[in-house]
C-alpha cells in the first residue's frame, strides 16, 4: 500500500511532533494530494514571501509550545497523501486552522517564573558536565542552528549551549518588528517562554525556537546522556584551544572548567551604546533592544499612556522600529543623515523611506547628533550638536551592534579582526583546529565578496548550521557560500528585501517600471493605477524627492561586479537576486532587471 | 555606468542620476520593454534537499522535521522512522510496531513537546476533514498559479 514515506509540512514546513505518531497509529490512510498553503512550499503566489525567513534558510520554525491554559485546540489537519508504487510516498500536510491566541495575564505563577529567570541554571558549577563533546559558546540563533546541525548529523551527540541570557534560544528579528503588534506586551514579555507573534505570512509563532522541555537538563549531561543542554546565566570567559578546555563563569560569580571535543564561538552581538546617553541609560530611561528583556522594559514604558519615544539611529533596525512603535507612542526618529536609511539606500529611495515613516506619524529629526542627555522628573532632555533640545519619555538606541567576543578572544589569545571585529575564521568558519565561529562573532572569508562580518539573522542561521555540520562531520569541512538576506518593513505599504552588500557608498543602478514611478503631486492625488510615467521629468527627479518610486530593483556595484541586490516593494524574487549575486558580472544590467518582472506586482 | 546604457535608440528607457556625484543611476522603462525576454539566463536554482534525498535515504537535517530528530526522543524517532521508511512489509511499517512503541514511550515523558494523548480523537476527525478541505484548496491554488 504505502511504499515509502516522506513528509512535507506546510505552513512553517514543520511536522508537529505528535503528528507522526498519530499518522502511524491511524494506519496512514491515503488521501489525495493537496496543497493547503502555497506560500512555503512553492514560494509563489502570495505577497510578501520572505525567502530568507522561511525554512529553506532558517532553522525550522518552532512549534508554538502548548500554551498553559489549554484552551487552544491545536487542530492539526494531516493529510496523508500518496503515491505510486515506487518512492513517492506520503506527504503530510498540516494546517493549523485554529490558533487561538492565549491572553496571558501576570499571575503569581508567572511572577515566579520571571523571578527564576534572574538566577543561573544550573546554579553551581558542579551542575555542569566535566566534558562536552560539542561546546557552543552563546545561546542565540547561530548556536541554536549549530546545535540542530550537530544533533542531526550525530544523534548521540552531547551538546552544551552556554548563554548569558536566562531565556532559551529565541529569534531576534521580531524584537524590532512584529512583536510590537502584540497586545499586553509588557506583561507577556515577562514570560518569553510563552511569547508568540504573528509573522509575515500570518502564522502565529513562538519567539523561542524550542520550549525549555526540548533541552536536556545539564545534570543529565553530566551522566553523558546524549542531548542538547543549556547553561543559562553562564558565560564562557576563556578557551584553551590547545587543551580543548573552557572556563565558564556564572552571573553569580561561580566558575567551572570543562573540556570539549569541538567548540563553536557564537556569542552574537551586543547593541552599540551611545556615549552621551550613558547616564540616562543608567537611570533606566534609555535602552537598546538587544534582548527580550529589553522589549519588556520598553513595553512597560509605553504602556503608561501616550508617551514620546526617541528612536535614535537611521539604519534598518532604527527605521523599522520607529515604524513599529508608531501605533503605540509618539515617535521622534533621530538620525545623523539627511534621510532614514541613507547609508543603505540611494537618495531617491531614502526619500521614499522618509515619506513612508511620515505617513505612519513618525516625526523625523534628521541631521542630528545627540551630544548630551539629562534625566529629570522621569523625562529625558536630549541636546543635539546643533544646539537644539528634545524632551522625551524614553530613548531607544539603534546604533548597530558589535560582536560580543573581544574579551573571550583576548583571554584565549585568539585573533580578532582589527576593522570588522569578530574572530578571524577561514572560509570553512574555523579559527583553530577544533574551534569554530559563526554568526555575528565570525569574521569569515567569503569566496565571492572577500572578508566580511555580518549581523543578519539569515547569516546566523546559515553559518551556524554550516559550522555545526563541519564540527560534526568526519569528512572534509565545507566552505561557507551562503549569501545572506535581510528584510524590513516600514508600515504596510513599504517593504524591502536585500542580499549582499547594501551600502550607499557603492555606486548603484536602480531599475523601475514606468507605472511604478510617478511625480509626487500625482502620486498624492491619484488613487492607484495607470499613471503615465512620462509625466515624471528629469528636472523633478533631480529636485530630490519630486518623483515617487514605488517598486523596483537596485544593483549595488563594486567596479563592474554586482555585490548587492535590493528588492524594493518587490517580493518572491530573492532566489533570483541570489543567483544574480552569485554570478556578479553582467554586460547590461537592464537585461538583468528584466528577469525580475518589475512590471508585475507579484 | 554598466547598466541601462546600451542601444538608446531602440528603447523607451530614460536614465537619470539621483545624486550629485552621479553615483546613483535610475533607469525607468516601459512596461512593454520590461516584458520582452531577457538576454540573460541564469541557471535554475538548486533545489533545497527535502526529507528524502535523491538516493532514497533520509535527510535528518531537513527543516521539515522541526525538533523531531534532534530533540529528546530523537534517536527513538529515527529508529521508528527509518524502520518505516525502509519497511518492505505489507502494509508498510507493520513490522515497526515495537520501535514505535519505544518512541511513543519516550514522547509520553515530554507532554509539552509531543502533545497530549487526547489529541488522538481530533486526529481522526482532522484527517477526514482535511481530505475534504484540501481538495478545495488544491483547486484554488492551481488556479492561482495559472
TrEMBL record, chain A:
Residues covered by region (Disordered): 34-71, 104-125
GO molecular function: FAD binding; NAD(P)H oxidase H2O2-forming activity; protein dimerization activity
Entry-linked InterPro entries: AIF_C (IPR029324), FAD-oxidoreductase/Apoptosis (IPR050446), FAD/NAD-bd_sf (IPR036188), FAD/NAD-binding_dom (IPR023753), FAD/NAD-linked_Rdtase_dimer_sf (IPR016156)
Keyword NAD appears in the UniProt entry: yes
GO biological process: apoptotic process; mitochondrial respiratory chain complex assembly
SUPFAM superfamilies in alphabetical order: FAD/NAD(P)-binding domain, FAD/NAD-linked reductases, dimerisation (C-terminal) domain
Residue ranges occupied by any FAD/NAD(P)-binding domain in the UniProt entry: 135-464
UniProt KW Mitochondrion keyword: yes
Annotated keywords: Apoptosis, FAD, Flavoprotein, Mitochondrion, NAD, Oxidoreductase, Transit peptide
Catalytic activity as recorded in UniProt: A + NADH + H(+) = AH2 + NAD(+)
Main localization (coarse): mitochondrion
Signal peptide as annotated in the record: none
Coiled-coil regions listed: none
Source superkingdom: Eukaryota
Record localization: Mitochondrion
Compositional bias annotation for Pro residues: 58-69
Cofactor(s) needed for function: FAD
Record's GO cellular component terms: mitochondrion
Annotated Mitochondrial apoptosis-inducing factor C-terminal domain residues: 467-582
PANTHER family: APOPTOSIS-INDUCING FACTOR 1, APOPTOSIS-INDUCING FACTOR 1, MITOCHONDRIAL
Family: Belongs to the FAD-dependent oxidoreductase family.
Protein name: Uncharacterized protein
Organism: Pieris macdunnoughi
UniProtKB/TrEMBL annotation, chain B:
Biased composition annotated in UniProt, kind: Basic and acidic residues: 137-146
GO cellular component, one term: mitochondrial intermembrane space
Region (Disordered): 1-52, 127-146
Cellular localisation: Mitochondrion
Domain CHCH: from-to ranges: 73-108
Keywords, ordered alphabetically: Disulfide bond, Mitochondrion, Oxidoreductase, Protein transport, Redox-active center, Translocation, Transport
Highest rank taxon of the organism: Eukaryota
UniProt xrefs under InterPro entries: CHCH, CHCHD4, UIM_dom
Compositionally biased residues, Low complexity: 32-41, 127-136
Biased composition (Polar residues): 7-18
Biological-process GO terms, alphabetical: protein import into mitochondrial intermembrane space
GO molecular function annotations of the record: protein-disulfide reductase activity
Keyword presence, Transferase: no
PANTHER family for this protein: COILED-COIL-HELIX-COILED-COIL-HELIX DOMAIN CONTAINING 4
Protein name: CHCH domain-containing protein
Organism, as annotated: Pieris macdunnoughi
Lineage: Eukaryota, Metazoa, Ecdysozoa, Arthropoda, Hexapoda
